[in-house]
Each structure stands twice: as structure tokens, then as C-alpha cells.
Amino acid sequence: MPNGPSRVRRALSLYVKARTDALSAARRELGLGDGDARALLHIAAHPGIRPTQLREHLGITSAGVTALIDRLVDRGIVRRDVDPSDRRVNRISVTVDLDDEPWSRLGRFDNDFDLVAGEIEDHESDAFTALLESLTTAAVDRGRR
Known about the structure:
Blueprint: H1 5-30, H2 34-45, H3 51-58, H4 62-74, E1 78-83, E2 86-94, H5 108-117, H6 122-143
Antiparallel strand pairs: 1-2
Helix pairs in contact: 2-4, 3-4
């Protein structure tokens, strides 16, 4: 296999494809669209998030986030709670346990990846992380020119 940039890019492409495929399969099994799955994972990482914060994270309209939350509430996956300090505001929380089946399928690839990555020596992990951050920053900066 050749060395250099194309090898690094191919390896990253393989990772991205494998992760995308795993998440797509999990979404299909759970009957979730891409936006709903992304929202669910973000809400789980930020319990009690406000709809406006979720809207900003997902980059969708207010009507879009309302419809998305309605779908998830109707399925019993999330709930709306009134903010006790401001009754005009809703807080959104996950009602399912993403560590239990079948919901754990959404994070299985990342969890398995983290387990394997945890076996890498710290100095190797640090060097790899620094390389990815450097390459990403440089590519983004060049794209802005």
C-alpha cells in the first residue's frame, strides 16, 4: 500500500464509511430518520436541552425542530418538561436508555471503536489525534481562502 496523503485519506474514508454504515443500519432497525437519530444522540448527551439549542445544533428551522420533537415524543423516545424557572420554556430529555437494546445499536460502533482505541498506547493516541487535528485545521483553513 502506498504511503503518504492518499493512504491517510483512504484510512479516514474507510472509518467514515464504516461508521456511517453502522449508524444507518441502526437507524433502519429503529425506524429513525437521520435527523431524528442525530437529535436523539444530542439530547442524550445534553439532558434538558431547550428546543432552540437543539435547533441550532441541527441547523434546522423552528418548525422543523418542533416537528422532530413531536415525532420523538409521539414514539415515547423523548419527553418535554416545563422549565421550572420559566414556564414558557420546554426542556427535552430522553426517556429510553441508550445503553440498552435496541437503542444501544445507535452508539455501538463508537463504543466498540473507543474500546479498541483504548488499547493504543497514550503516546500513539496523542500523536494520531494531533495529526488528525492538524490535517483537519489545515484543510478547513485552505478551504476558506
